[in-house]
Design goal:
It comes from Lepisosteus oculatus (Spotted gar). The protein is of the alpha+beta class and 218 residues long. It has two domains: 39 residues; 141 residues, Jelly Rolls (Sandwich), CATH 2.60.120.40. The chain has one helix and twelve strands. The strands form three sheets. Strands 1, 3, 6, 9, 11 and 12 form a six-stranded antiparallel sheet that branches. Strands 2-10-7-8 form a four-stranded antiparallel sheet, with no helix packed on it. A hairpin with a 2-residue loop joins strand 7 and strand 8.
């Protein structure tokens, strides 16, 4: 018996070919989207874990007034920390100046930093990720007016930390703490400036409780 062979419809072949290509494209798109979402989630989880670990180490750091190494604690950890106090209590538009206060615990500026007390510039001597923080404590000496005070830290021309404190029309002491984590190089130069929205002659910056700290995160 003869076998009948019929040629496929060219249009049907084209449609089936297009359908297979479309299926492959959709499958590839779904796989790519899944990998992208999974990668982003994994990256976010790693970042949050590192940040949590960094914050836990931050809580364990010695304060500027207790910088002496504890028994069994590597002394090199103290070299990763620097803390300086505000050098003036004046509240005005100005470049911030700082002073290092040596205590029984040792030098408040670790060997991984250089500090120029004349210019107020702090520079790390190594590259890495650093935790920066500033304490601002304002006290009222007379009839104080409301307003705001902002202290901005720059690395050359880049803002690395911005701290604003809104001060009400009150006699109460105002406290603000701001922090940031950023990457710095051995050529970084940190300097700060203060900006006020209105002239404040009766508000004073508590020099003993206001300061700037930085340390290298492991």
């Amino acid at each position: 018996a003869a076998t009948n062979m019929t040629a496929a419809d060219p249009e049907s072949l084209v449609e089936r070919s297009r359908g297979r290509c479309l299926d492959k494209f959709l499958l590839a798109s779904v796989v790519f989207l899944f990998l992208a979402v999974f990668g982003a989630a994994a990256g976010a989880a790693v970042f949050l874990q590192n940040l949590k670990s960094s914050e836990e180490r931050i809580a364990d750091l010695p304060t500027p007034s207790s910088r002496r190494a504890l028994p069994g604690e590597p002394y090199y950890k103290l070299q990763k920390i620097a803390y300086v106090h505000a050098d003036t209590g004046k509240i005005s538009n100005q470049s911030m100046k700082w002073r290092s206060v040596r205590s029984a615990g040792g030098n408040p500026v670790g060997t991984l930093f250089t500090f120029n007390q004349i210019t107020g510039v702090i520079s790390p001597t190594v590259e890495g990720m650093f935790y920066l923080y500033v304490d601002l404590v304002l006290t009222c000496t007379a009839n104080c007016k409301s307003g705001s005070v902002t202290v901005t830290f720059m690395n050359k021309n880049d803002v690395v930390l911005d701290c604003r404190i809104d001060i009400p029309d009150t006699f109460d002491t105002q406290v603000q703490k701001c922090w940031n984590i950023t990457t710095l190089s051995s050529h970084s130069q940190l300097h700060a400036s203060m900006k006020v929205d209105t002239e404040q002659s009766d508000w004073k910056l508590d020099e003993n409780r206001s300061g700037f700290g930085i340390f290298l995160i492991d």
